[in-house]
Amino acid sequence: MSDHSVSNIATADALTLLLHNQHALAAAIEEVAVWLSANGVQVVADNAVMAMETLDTNAKAITDAIMRIRQS
User: Fold this and answer.
1) What does the angle CA 8 – CA 14 – CA 20 come to, to the nearest 5 degrees?
2) Cα torsion for 61, 23, 27, 60, to the nearest 10°?
3) Is the dihedral of CA 7, 9, 14, 18 positive or negative?
4) How confident is the model at residue 1, as a pLDDT?
5) What superkingdom does the record give (predicted)?
6) Is 30 exposed, middle or buried (0-12, 13-18, 19+ CB in 10 A)?
7) CA of 52: how far to CAs of 14, 19, 37, 66, 70, in Å?
8) CA 58 to CA 26: how far, in whole Å?
9) What is the DSSP letter of 41?
């Protein structure tokens, strides 16, 4: 296995861990948003939902990057 392949695997593995962190953060933010909404703090809940949307958008880009790296 070439150094380039080892480097690609390490990079893809690190990005995969970051992606898992993104998913965990999104889940936590979603729980907080639900609680905020249920407790009458809708403006803050809406802001949390916008943050989750950003995490989702970035997660898709990270996933695409991981797939490209793993295929090279």
Assistant:
1) 135
2) 20
3) positive
4) 67
5) Bacteria
6) middle
7) 21, 13, 15, 20, 26
8) 11
9) -
What is the maximal distance between C-alpha atoms in the chain?
57
Position of tokens 């802001």?
47
Residue 40, phi then psi, degrees to nearest 5: 80, 20
**Contact yes or no for 63/16 (Cβ under 8 A):** no
Radius of gyration over alpha carbons of the chain, in Å? 17
CA distance readout (Å), 55 to 15, 19, 29, 40, 51: 14, 10, 10, 24, 6
Q: What are the pLDDT digits (tens) for 7-42? A: 999 999 999 999 999 999 999 999 999 999 999 999
